[in-house]
Amino acid sequence: MDNMKKALAGKLLAIKAIKLQPNDPFTWASGWKSPIYCDNRKVNSFPEVRSFVKLELTHTILEQFPDVEAIAGVATGAISQGALVADVLNLPFAYVRPKPKDHGMGNQIEGELKAGAKVVVVEDLISTGGSSLKAVEALRAAGVEVLGMVASYTYGFPVAEAAFKEAGVTLYTLTDYNHVITQAAETGYVSQEDVEMLKEWRKDPANWKK
User: pTM to 2 decimals?
Assistant: First the structure.
């Protein structure tokens, strides 16, 4: 598992799906200043990395959730990854919007999931966990059984771990913040001084200042 996490961390850094800018921080939608930014949508444009993620997500689901009957992706980042996984598994697929549409049928869940179906949720990344768990709430409200969630990447924030525990959702991820930082240091992407700063940022990202 560690080898796989390290391998994917390297691939995400190589295609710049994950960028590290310790001296020129990004601003997240939340307003947080961050030395790291993850955009897993870039994976779709690189067939070798896309295939790697697709197969590893599939293997994780088969190993951890063998009773799965359907796949649900979280809009918008995980729609493509979820659909690819569902295709490999030959299972029904649906995706979950952040909120119901304000027109048409007013759907929040797009696609068809049978009542009581055992569903695994696919997500592209986990930050605080809020949007991911809202998707779980919508699925549960629709009458399906959420077995758990798989994701490509997690920042590993304690607030997210606590939220998943409280919601009773089991989460498995292909790689994480620690493996990305380790891989970045080993390849010379960042200095050891930057590594220490990156570790400090994750302890309290909401209040971090460069």
Answer: 0.93
Residue closest to 130 by CA, chosen among 102, 157, 101, 100: 157
Measured CA distances, 61 to 106, 107, 141, 202 (Å)? 30, 26, 23, 28
DSSP E strand boundaries for the chain: 18-20, 26-27, 33-34, 36-38, 70-74, 93-96, 109-110, 118-126, 145-154, 171-176
Q: Taking a C-beta distance cutoff of 8 angstroms, is the pair 152, 121 a contact?
A: no
Say which amino acid occupies 172: Y
Q: Give the Cα separation of 85 and 205 in Å (integer).
A: 32
Is there a contact between 156 and 202 (Cβ–Cβ < 8 Å)? yes
Cβ-in-10-Å burial (0-12, 13-18, 19+) of 93 comes to buried
Q: Count CB neighbours of 95 within 10 A.
A: 22
pLDDT tops 60 at residue 104:
no
Helix axes 79-89, 47-64, angle to 10 degrees: 60
Q: Which token pair is 35?
A: 């030395």
Q: Which position has the higher pLDDT, 140 or 205? A: 140
